[in-house]
Design goal:
- The structure holds two protein chains of two kinds.
- Chain A is of the alpha/beta class.
- Chain A contains ten helices and ten strands.
- In chain A, strand 3, helix 6 and strand 4 form a beta-alpha-beta unit.
- In chain A, helix 3 crosses helix 4, helix 3 runs parallel beside helix 5 and helix 5 runs parallel beside helix 6.
- The longest helix of chain A is centred in the middle third of the chain and has 16 residues.
- The two termini of chain A are about 20 Å apart.
- The mean pLDDT of chain A is about 90.
- Chain B has two domains: about 240 residues, no CATH class; about 130 residues, abc type-2 transporter like domain (abc type-2 transporter like fold).
- Helix content of chain B is about 70%, strand content about 5%.
- Chain B has 19 helices and four strands.
- In chain B, strands 2-1-3-4 form a four-stranded mixed β-sheet, with helices on both faces.
- The two termini of chain B are about 25 Å apart.
- Classes of the chains: A alpha/beta, B mainly alpha.
- Chains A and B meet through helix 2 and helix 3 of A and helix 1 and helix 13 of B.
């Protein structure tokens, strides 16, 4: 609770080991608040958070296992990229050769080899975002909390961040990834929790969510001339424009092809998480 | 402890990377000290050689001896001028003061004169420090001369006879003069008899107790009064102030750095790291403390080596600096939670600290403040900081006298630090 506002309300979920778990929701849905509770910065008014059988996430041994890349660029702009990494590495107990090794690794991950001794304030937005992620990784944590890690970056850096996360996923790290971009959740996450106004609306794999809440595939066909369609075919025909929502899009397309009508344009829209969110809330995720 | 040192090192590195802040922390206070120190010393106010104009209107043997005696003082640079020129030079600040020895001084200084020897010291009322200093030197010279007269029979006889002649010339009646002329006559005979007594060695005199009698009561002059309790140079006033300017700059810089950590998200990152809040605050406090201490010591070293500021009372001086630094670290913590943005905290810190500086002697030296301002200055930590540092440099404070300023500094530091940390903890949660 923040005053009268309930930021997170009766939210309950479990994240498995080595799983990439997405928290999908619009801005203000309660994703960052959830992350802050997971690392013990905020204490829930009621309920419990358990990390590796420990109910107090602020304990040192729990925090040592977690790497967090906050949504805001949390780095020291007057320090160099290398100094930022070394500083946070030391806070997590690294020193000597191990620290050097991890800093070198993180510099490579962030693709800052040529700029490692430059002050962070001289970096581009994408470079800062990559450094922000690398700082979360420098102490080699098995659990990663990535809070909107692609906000405000160029497509190239964004793609690079995706590739990095996919590699981390392959390494078997547990990742909790918050985003309001459904494409990111679809591409990266094994399971997704959709939250809005602090409440959990749905949880499952992307396919499960689409199947359960996405509705049917939308088929839209523009014919060259007005077709003669079978009377038992549901859908609406307006002159040469036909549209229909169906769970069996291939069968419908086959029927339309047999109607002797000549296709001018065919569009098949598989439901996505955007549609899932729309169906669950009546609002579009992108409009938030 | 390693974690705290890591945090503190980071803050010190950030402080040094910020060129503007580094200037305000080190460069500006040093410039202030040197600039104002040289301006004040250039105006002839150097207290190691205050310029005193002597106006001898009497031109008697006594007044000439007095002028010579004043000229021997290493604390003064004397020059003889007519009264109008002397007044003019004092008005335009070319000299600290003038001393008028009026006609009749020599006569009045003798025995039985009807008037008391009078002197006139012309000085700007604002120059309270110099006035007190000059009074001390003038009285010291006067009594030194008087003592010599008593111990020199020839000189004494001369004075006695001059006094008797003066009384007779004034036409006093025999009845009125009877006891006085009788006394002075006896004194004259006594000093004449002394001339007939064979001279003894100093050891014999001392053994017989004659030396003590002839020299009069021994006056134990503590050099602190004239030497320690006043600044030797204007730099001994400007350098303590510059220390406070440095502390103000460090305080403002670190107060802003705490709010920067919060607004830029690094504070959250620190809180997520395996650290306690104590670690984070200790790191910040140690960095602030260390940088303040280093800057103060640097300024004092420059002051001592280049501008001859007295640093001989090292332990007391270091204690004063440590307590001042502690006080300002507490203030830093409180100011850091007085605003939510860097701009707000930056503005508040300079506003608050400038007022403290203005009222506490950072701009106008405490020694020359008018009374009402001195009363207000009691509410400023800058005053207590300067007071304690000056106490160790030139005020000649004993440890007992130091307890008050040091106690006030520690109390302010403790209270403000506690309030700051409490508010920070509440806002975080």
């Amino acid at each position: 609770m923040y005053g009268d506002l309930t930021a997170v309300d009766n939210l309950s979920f479990t994240v498995q080991d080595s799983e990439t778990f997405g928290l999908l929701g619009p801005n203000g849905a309660g994703k960052t608040t959830t992350i802050n509770m997971l690392v013990g910065v905020l204490e829930p008014d009621s309920g419990q958070i358990t990390v590796n059988n420990t109910t107090d996430p602020s304990q040192t041994q729990v925090r040592m296992q977690i790497g967090n890349a906050p949504q805001a660029l949390a780095l020291y702009e007057d320090l160099t990229g290398e100094e930022n990494l070394a500083f946070f590495g030391r806070l997590y107990g690294l020193s000597g050769a191990r620290l050097k090794e991890r800093v070198n690794w993180a510099v490579k991950v962030a693709r800052l080899e040529d700029r490692r001794t430059d002050q962070a304030k001289k970096y581009s937005g994408g470079m800062k975002r990559r450094l922000n992620l690398a700082i979360a990784l420098v102490h080699d944590p098995p659990v990663l909390l990535l809070d909107e890690p692609t906000v405000g970056v160029d497509p190239q850096s964004r793609n690079f961040i995706f590739e990095t996360i996919e590699k981390l996923r392959e390494e078997g790290r547990t990742i909790i990834y918050t985003t309001h971009y459904m494409e990111e959740a679809e591409r990266l996450c094994d399971r997704v929790a959709i939250i809005d106004h602090g409440q959990l609306l749905a949880i499952g794999t992307v396919d499960e969510l689409i199947e359960k809440f996405g509705g049917h595939t939308q088929i839209t066909v523009d014919f060259a001339t007005s077709p003669k369609l079978p009377t038992n075919l549901e859908g609406s025909l307006d002159g040469t424009h036909f549209s229909m929502a169906t769970p069996k899009p291939l069968e419908v397309l086959n029927t339309l092809a047999n109607s002797k009508g000549k296709f001018h344009q065919v569009k098949i829209e598989r439901p996505d998480l955007e549609r899932v969110f729309l169906n669950l809330t009546g609002r579009s995720l992108r409009d938030q | 402890m390693n974690t705290v040192i890591t945090l503190a090192t980071k803050d010190l590195r950030l402080l040094l990377r910020d060129k503007a802040t580094t200037f305000w922390v080190i460069g500006f206070p040093l410039l202030m000290a040197v600039f104002f120190g040289s301006v004040f010393s250039g105006m002839g106010d150097s207290m190691s050689g205050m310029r005193l104009i002597l106006v001898d209107q009497d031109q008697s043997e006594s007044s000439i001896q007095f002028v010579e005696e004043l000229g021997k003082s290493t604390a003064l640079r004397t020059v003889a001028l007519p009264l109008d020129s002397a007044q003019q030079r004092v008005r335009i600040g070319k000299a600290s003061a003038y001393l008028l020895i009026p006609k009749g001084y020599g006569t009045a200084q003798g025995f039985g004169g009807s008037a008391k020897a009078k002197l006139e010291l012309g000085i700007d009322p604002a120059r309270q420090v110099e006035r007190g200093y000059l009074q001390g030197i003038i009285m010291q010279s006067y009594f030194a001369l008087l003592q010599r007269q008593f111990t020199d029979p020839a000189l004494m006889k001369k004075h006695l006879r001059a006094s008797l002649d003066s009384l007779r010339a004034d036409g006093e009646t025999a009845n009125e003069l009877g006891p006085l002329t009788s006394f002075l006559g006896s004194m004259d005979q006594f000093y004449s008899w002394l001339d007939t007594v064979p001279k003894t060695t100093a050891a014999d005199s001392a053994a017989a107790g004659n030396d003590a009698f002839m020299s009069g009561p021994e006056l134990d002059i503590v050099p602190m009064t004239a030497d320690r309790a006043f600044p030797k140079s204007s730099y001994e006033i400007t350098f303590p102030s510059s220390l406070m300017w440095a502390l103000i700059a460090v305080t403002a810089a670190f107060a802003v750095s705490i709010v920067q950590e919060r607004t830029r998200g690094t504070f959250l990152r620190l809180r997520i790291a395996p650290l306690t809040r104590t670690h984070i605050l200790a790191g910040k406090g140690i960095a602030c403390f260390a940088s303040s201490l280093v800057v103060c010591i640097l300024l004092l070293i420059v002051g001592g080596l280049v501008f001859k500021v007295r640093l001989d009372n090292t332990i007391m001086l270091l204690t004063a600096v440590l307590c001042s630094v502690f006080c300002f670290c507490g203030l830093m913590m409180l100011i850091s939670v007085m605003g939510k943005t860097e701009q707000a905290v930056g503005g508040i810190s300079w506003a608050v600290l400038l007022v403290f500086s203005m009222t506490g002697g950072g701009m106008i030296p405490l020694a020359v403040m008018p009374g009402w301002m001195r009363t207000i200055s009691n509410f400023s930590p800058v005053k207590w900081g300067i007071y304690s540092v000056e106490g160790a440099i030139w005020r000649g404070f004993s440890w007992g006298e130091m307890m008050l300023p040091l106690g006030v500094l520690i109390a302010i530091g403790l209270v403000t630090f506690t309030i700051g940390v409490t508010i920070l903890a509440r806002t975080d949660n």
